[in-house]
Description:
By secondary structure, chain A is mainly α. Chain A has helices spanning 2-21, 28-42, 44-59, 66-70, 76-112. By secondary structure, chain B is mainly alpha-helical. The chains are: A mainly alpha, B mainly alpha. The interface between A and B is large, with 76 and 112 residues.
Amino acid sequence: MVPALSIIFVFQLVGEVISRGLHLPLPGPVLGMLGMVVAISASEKLRDLIRPVAQGLLAHLSLLFVPAGVGVVAHMPTLMAHGPALAIALVVSTLLAIVVGAIAFSLAAKLVGSVSDD
Amino acid sequence: MTDAALIWSYLTSQPLLWLTATLLAYWAGDRLFQLSRRNPLANPVVIAVILLATLLISTGTAYADYFEGAQFVHFMLGPATVCLAIPLQANLKAIRKALVPILVALVAGSFTAVASALAIAKLLGADDMLLASLAPKSATAPVAIGISEALGGQPTLTAVLVLLTGMIGAVFVTPMLNALGLRDWRARGFATGVAAHGIGTARAFQVHDTAGAFASIGMGLNAVLTAFMAPLVLHLFL
């Protein structure tokens, strides 16, 4: 576990340094993730080393949102003041994005003749 | 001071108490989620947040004090984001096979999510901080929090908006797309992953395996695209 965790941290660290050094819009961990996709595509050994730890972490991904989510207590006044605006923005934009995305996918798939395996 | 008060004041000055409370609250939330047969309305994170928020308010604990303990859990978001490389890489073959529809749907869905949310919130009087916190809400939480921070938003507010977005997507996606008669599971899953990240992806896996696989691709790719798109679209509304 220690080697895998060390490598994961190194990818994040390098991503953080590149992101801040070059003032990129991509957060460091996302750069680290992209670097990791390239690295595990190149090395099966690395992928086998990382996979168990990654799966363990990702299985409890939701837990990691809890501390930030509890921040809701610090934002009660904002949420109260803008409750209706935020609720309408979230519901409409999420449903619209799903419909637009799904229709765009279907149309593009028909256009290029890409069919599902199942 | 009584012994109990001394112990309490010791505990509240240490990270152990709130770290333990965070894990216990999530455990309780996860149990309830399983008992409800994975009903998206019984989201474990929402249950845990409600339990902890109630506890903080009733004990008069400041969020900053809570975060002293909870930061160890929060910290793991970064490494977890790096780990998303594993499912993303495993799906590279499926991505190549449907590359054109994936790219078209990714750009269309991601732009719609950011731009429509900002347009509506701006029309209804949201200020700049609120808009910056709202912009990345369709991206997966660790990424959205990072983007929000970079844009001058409130990361903790973004976390709440991200959770709500996922729940809205998970609850409405199936009846909505059934009503529209869309039957391509790849399209349905992918769009759900783009708009409603991990919570939508979990829902997609319950409905259909292909939908789930494409939802995780959508979530992964949108994490990257939102990082580029959110700052650009946000500038149109500031």
